């Protein structure tokens, strides 16, 4: 996300005793109303919704950390509570989490909005949560010290108790709530010395695992509200098509169908069960105004890329020196075209949302990545004031950037409004696959030249692709102008760590008409492929080892070089592999983290690629939970590998061709490589964790295929036919 | 009314006998631990047991389970004490968690007949369950841990 | 014993084995005597028609040489890399019946169904894929390899009455059917048997 705006971080702490006797602490940002008035915090049990960045302590000493970020598998419901537990000095067994509502109090400082994306949750909340927890710790200590009539600095906090060191007197947090609530929080609480961290930096067990192994974790699709109806939407088969006419007689005749509602972009069938809605949808007859996309297919899109690259200058994303002068000095030159396709997110939980729109208010439920955008979107679609919209966040059955979108939120809101009842909209897998906002397809033209020693003297990279922000930016109130750069299109390609004296990266914006969006690691998901594979080609052209060549172009102390060396060492770089197998390496920085991966692959005589092993070295700065980081690296590898081996969305006459997992194939268990993750110990600022493992895997695998077969893959997904041994 | 035994409790439904069990379980019986992922038996998120064997509930009609015992993730153990559930937590296998009911139910069906699974056994039984978060290696480790702990 | 005698003995044993094989294994008793040259021609012609059904995708997909069934007219390896298992009903946790129901379901990508959906068991694979017509014919007549069916009429009965076989002619939307109707297929098989069941060369 590139919409960072300056956020007023001067927060103050508000404490009060609420119904039920729990002490509630929260960070309030000046200008907002009191937390407990907004949300009735404390009146509701922990399973209900209360604000983020709040610490609730119950009389039994149980601490609930209310998290306004969304849990989509990345472990935020564990990592953020860990930060609080450490600074508050409470035992992990007494810590639970709860989902926060939509509110400014939960703005992610690293994003400038309440949002879970850009691998930024820990980055954004590490400091604010430590401060909030330290304030509470000091208030509890002060309360106890006052009751014992001793100086506060003679007391310590430990395992949920305040202890007077000299006399060994102690009091449980739960018994100090009233007294602590009367104490003013310090604006500069003393933070723990990192060497005393008890949880931060340790592999702490996830708090959300227990509910995810017995079926009790609640996802959006599991929401049930009294009186709720179920809806499915029949959507235009052509991207951007609209409803011309509807014959709903047969649909309405289906038992259980209650409403058929035309939404312009689709027709909603509402029924008393999902099954009835699905039957109704099958019976519905709609004619469509197909619109201009009916003339667009993958071939015409490719032609538009090729033509645009050839005929347009594009916008200059970065320029160093003079590439023409560099070309004149080159002893050898290389030109290549790299192509990466449109990709679907394909979260395991298809899009769904539940809305209860009333005359003057609305309450909504679902898995979302941007609660306040949801709140505003629902308000607008329902025609109710924004402060009258209550957003309940559930667990997300995968996010990957897809649940930043508002389309499924609007569906439920409009249909609930039309029905006058709560409505849960569920997308079928086919709806989800064919109505995604796709990772943009990218056409890359790369040129480089080497001097007599094999060092690059120039590098030119031209990317023709859609602008994600042209569409997605609008949700954040951002309008991309024609002469404006959208870095999400070329990030990872324009600021290379490699020393290249003459460099230019141009972006040629193409509007394909295919809706594009944020897909795990965004621009880096494809730039790492084009850049790191082309770098591999240069190493081969120079006759150098791919690892040595990269290192020769990097500052020895750079974090790029650090992870490359670590991955190579752990992988046994240079050790012989059997014939038909090969090893490839790639490195990429994204979201402030540096990840290098070595892939070992075997290519069969039939051209089938089996990835046997992936060694991943990651430098993510200071780490909160190394086990979560390892899990995210493992998962990122799988996500990127599914895309590299199989992922491709194609368009025919404006229609998305792929429908379900039978023709948009993810990696399965038997194809899973061994994945080894090695983390660089670091005290550097927090980098992201959820996404940076994805970019290097495609180039590492493609480079390994080259090592194994001598064949250079320049277009994804990897095509078995091209690797067949003749 | 059709009577169906789920997790050793008798439920009733008046839905058409061709209705997939997935929706009967979720929307009628309130057992939402079984998930909808694809609707065509490709992803396995909806895996349940029918008389102890793994079935994709999104394609299993009511008529196919009458007179049989259905088990869902909620009924695998009364208190998350099944060796697989314990192993899953020990390995912190879940990420988003959406597919994990299906993963565990498929693994449980396998362990009943193959208590000491090899990697190939695990591949063959678990290949039908897609995880987009990429938890496969931890799922494999958890199955081995549960098997080592004598779990069925 | 001279080397000449030894050679003769070896040849003698070989001949005996072959003779036993022809009578005892490959040729069901009811057909051994009958064949005239004319019948054999008729039988082979009928079989060469019928075999197109065995080789069709609907039938051969579940009769592979290895342990992985195939799917689609292109006979690609079955999705999810499913395996035969020892009894032909899949492996624990991934049985055929995990996905395949007693009847077809309507809709794109849904698994086809018929009662008792399964493959031949691992110890009696009844391979269709990759076989020549002659080899398949021999296999059909060999009780050791044809599922223990001692007469060809038994085999025909199975083909005629097993709903799983019949599924090939009612495979659900989007799937092709074998090149002969089930009735014509049975007719050709009966012609083949009645003419002595000679196998193609």
Task: Determine the structural class of chain C based on helices, strands and strand pairing.
Answer: mainly alpha
The CATH superfamily of the largest domain in chain B turns out to be Beta-grasp domain
Largest interface: A-B, 61 and 59 residues
The protein's oligomeric status is heterotrimer
- On the 0-100 scale, what is the average pLDDT of chain B? 97
Give the CA-based shape of chain C: globular
The rounded distance between the terminal residues' Cα atoms of chain C is 40 Å
Beta-sheet strand percentage of chain C?
Answer: under 5%
Shape of chain B: globular
CATH topology of the largest domain in chain B: Ubiquitin-like (UB roll)
Number of helices of chain C: 8
CATH architecture of the largest domain in chain B: Roll
Number of helices of chain B: 5
Largest sheet of chain B: 5 strands, mixed
Task: Please give the radius of gyration of chain C in angstroms.
Answer: 20 Å
Based on helices, strands and strand pairing, what is the structural class of chain B? alpha+beta
Chart the SSEs and their pairings:
The complex is a heterotrimer of chains A (726), B (152) and C (201).
Chain A: E1 12-17, E2 23-28, H1 35-39, E3 54-57, E4 63-67, H2 76-88, E5 95-99, H3 121-148, E6 155-158, E7 161-164, E8 170-172, H4 177-181, H5 209-212, E9 229-235, E10 242-247, H6 249-253, E11 257-262, E12 266-271, H7 274-283, E13 285-289, H8 298-311, E14 315-320, H9 323-329, E15 332-340, E16 352-357, E17 362-366, H10 371-382, E18 389-393, H11 407-419, E19 423-426, H12 429-434, E20 442-450, E21 456-465, H13 468-472, E22 503-509, H14 524-542, H15 546-552, H16 559-571, E23 581-590, E24 593-603, E25 609-619, H17 626-645, E26 651-652, E27 655-656, E28 674-679, H18 697-709, H19 720-723
Parallel strand pairs in A: 4-5, 9-19, 17-18, 21-22, 25-28
Antiparallel strand pairs in A: 1-2, 2-3, 3-4, 6-7, 7-8, 9-12, 10-13, 11-12, 14-22, 15-20, 16-17, 16-19, 20-21, 23-24, 24-25, 26-27
Chain B: E1 2-6, E2 9-13, H1 21-28, E3 47-50, E4 53-56, E5 69-71, H2 83-90, H3 100-113, H4 119-126, H5 136-148
Parallel strand pairs in B: 1-5
Antiparallel strand pairs in B: 1-2, 3-4, 3-5
Helix pairs in contact in B: 2-5, 3-4
Chain C: H1 3-26, H2 29-32, H3 37-54, H4 57-60, E1 70-71, E2 76-77, E3 90-91, E4 94-95, H5 133-140, H6 152-161, H7 163-166, H8 182-194
Helix pairs in contact in C: 3-8, 6-8
């Amino acid at each position: 996300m590139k919409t960072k705006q300056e956020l007023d971080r001067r927060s103050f702490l508000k404490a009060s005793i609420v119904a039920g006797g729990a002490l509630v602490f929260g960070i309030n940002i000046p200008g907002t109303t009191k937390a407990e008035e907004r949300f009735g915090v404390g009146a509701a049990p922990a399973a209900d919704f209360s604000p983020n960045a709040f610490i609730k302590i119950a009389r039994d000493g149980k601490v609930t950390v209310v998290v306004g970020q969304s849990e989509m598998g990345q472990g935020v419901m564990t990592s953020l509570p860990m930060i609080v537990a450490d600074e508050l000095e409470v035992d992990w067994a007494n810590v639970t989490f709860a989902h926060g509502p939509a509110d400014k109090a939960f703005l992610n400082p690293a994003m400038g909005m309440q949002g879970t994306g850009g691998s930024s949750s820990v980055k954004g909340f590490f400091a604010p949560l430590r401060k909030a927890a330290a304030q509470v710790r000091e208030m509890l200590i002060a309360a106890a010290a006052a009751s014992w009539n001793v100086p506060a600095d003679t007391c310590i906090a430990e395992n949920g108790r305040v202890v007077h060191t000299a006399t060994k007197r102690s009091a449980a947090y739960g018994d100090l709530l009233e007294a602590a609530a009367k104490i003013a929080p310090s604006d500069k609480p003393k933070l723990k010395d990192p060497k005393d961290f008890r949880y931060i930096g340790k592999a702490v067990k996830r708090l959300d695992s227990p509910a995810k192994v017995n079926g009790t974790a609640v996802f959006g699709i599991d929401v049930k509200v009294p009186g709720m109806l179920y809806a499915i939407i029949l959507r235009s088969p052509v991207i951007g098509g609209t409803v011309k006419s509807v014959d709903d007689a047969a649909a309405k005749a289906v038992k259980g169908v209650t409403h058929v509602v035309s939404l312009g972009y689709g027709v909603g069938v509402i029924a008393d069960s999902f099954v009835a809605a699905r039957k109704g949808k099958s019976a519905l007859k709609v004619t469509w105004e197909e619109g201009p996309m009916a003339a667009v297919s993958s071939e015409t899109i490719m032609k538009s890329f090729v033509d645009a690259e050839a005929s347009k200058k594009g916008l200059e994303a970065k320029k160093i020196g003079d590439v023409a002068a560099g070309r004149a000095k080159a002893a050898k030159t290389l030109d290549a075209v790299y192509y990466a396709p449109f990709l679907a997110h394909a979260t395991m939980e298809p899009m769904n949302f539940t809305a209860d729109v009333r005359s003057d208010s609305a309450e909504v439920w679902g898995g979302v990545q941007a609660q306040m955008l949801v709140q505003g979107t629902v308000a607008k679609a329902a025609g109710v004031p924004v402060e009258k919209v209550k957003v309940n966040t559930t667990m997300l059955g995968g996010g990957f950037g897809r649940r930043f979108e508002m389309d499924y939120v609007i569906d439920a809101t409009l249909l609930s409004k039309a029905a006058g009842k709560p409505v849960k909209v569920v997308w079928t897998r086919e709806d989800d696959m064919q109505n995604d906002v796709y990772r943009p397809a990218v056409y890359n033209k790369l040129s480089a030249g080497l001097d007599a020693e094999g060092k690059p003297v120039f590098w030119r990279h031209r990317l023709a692709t859609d602008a994600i922000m042209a569409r997605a930016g609008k949700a954040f109130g951002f309008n991309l102008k024609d002469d404006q750069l959208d870095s999400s299109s070329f990030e990872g390609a324009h600021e290379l760590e490699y020393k290249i004296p003459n460099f230019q990266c141009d972006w040629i914006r193409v509007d394909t008409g295919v809706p594009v969006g944020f897909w795990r690691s965004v621009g880096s998901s494809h730039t790492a492929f084009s850049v790191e594979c082309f770098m591999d080609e240069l190493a081969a052209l120079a006759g150098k080892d791919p690892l040595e060549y990269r290192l020769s172009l990097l500052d020895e102390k750079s974090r790029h070089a650090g992870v490359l060396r670590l991955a190579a060492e752990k992988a046994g770089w240079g050790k012989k592999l059997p014939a038909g197998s090969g090893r490839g390496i790639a490195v990429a920085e994204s979201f402030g983290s540096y990840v290098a991966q070595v892939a070992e692959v075997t290519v069969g005589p039939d051209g089938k690629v089996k990835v046997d092993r992936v060694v991943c070295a990651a430098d993510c700065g200071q780490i909160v939970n190394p086990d979560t980081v390892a899990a995210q690296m493992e998962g990122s590898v799988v996500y990127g590998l599914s895309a590299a081996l199989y992922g491709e969305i194609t368009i025919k006459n404006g229609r998305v061709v792929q429908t379900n997992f039978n023709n948009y194939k993810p990696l399965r268990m038997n194809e899973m490589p061994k994945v080894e993750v090695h983390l660089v110990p670091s005290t550097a600022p927090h980098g992201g964790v959820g996404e940076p493992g994805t970019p290097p895997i495609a180039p590492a695998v493609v480079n390994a295929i080259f090592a194994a077969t001598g064949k250079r893959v320049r277009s994804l997904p990897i095509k078995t036919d091209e690797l067949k041994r003749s | 009314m059709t009577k169906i035994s789920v997790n050793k409790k008798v439920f009733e439904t008046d839905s058409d006998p061709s209705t997939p069990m997935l929706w009967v379980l979720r929307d009628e019986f309130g057992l939402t631990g079984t998930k909808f992922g694809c609707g065509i038996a490709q992803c396995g998120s909806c895996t349940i047991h029918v008389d102890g064997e793994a079935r994709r509930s999104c394609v299993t009609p009511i008529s196919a389970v009458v007179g049989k015992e259905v088990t869902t993730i909620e009924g695998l153990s009364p208190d998350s004490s099944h060796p697989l559930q314990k192993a899953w937590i020990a390995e912190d296998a879940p990420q988003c968690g959406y597919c994990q009911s299906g993963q565990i139910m498929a693994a449980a069906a396998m362990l009943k007949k193959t208590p000491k699974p090899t990697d190939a056994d695990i591949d063959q039984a678990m290949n039908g369950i897609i995880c987009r978060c990429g938890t496969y290696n931890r799922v494999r480790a958890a199955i081995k841990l549960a098997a080592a702990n004598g779990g069925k | 014993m001279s080397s000449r005698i030894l050679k003769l003995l070896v040849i003698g044993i070989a001949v005996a084995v072959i003779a036993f094989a022809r009578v005892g294994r490959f040729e069901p008793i009811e057909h051994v005597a009958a064949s005239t040259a004319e019948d054999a021609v008729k039988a082979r012609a009928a079989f060469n028609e019928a075999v197109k059904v065995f080789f069709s995708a609907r039938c051969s997909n579940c009769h592979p040489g290895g342990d992985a069934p195939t799917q689609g007219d292109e006979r690609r390896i079955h999705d999810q890399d499913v395996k035969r298992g020892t009894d032909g009903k899949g492996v624990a946790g991934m049985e055929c019946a995990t996905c395949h129901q007693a009847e077809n379901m309507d809709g794109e990508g849904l698994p086809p169904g018929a009662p008792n959906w399964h493959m031949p068991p691992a110890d009696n694979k009844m391979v269709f894929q990759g076989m020549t017509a002659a080899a398949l014919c021999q296999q059909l007549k060999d009780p050791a390899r044809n599922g223990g069916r001692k007469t060809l009429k038994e085999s025909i009965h199975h083909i005629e009455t097993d709903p799983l076989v019949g599924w090939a002619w009612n495979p659900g939307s989007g799937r092709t059917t074998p090149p002969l109707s089930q009735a014509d297929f049975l007719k050709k098989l009966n012609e083949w048997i009645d003419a002595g069941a000679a196998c193609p060369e």
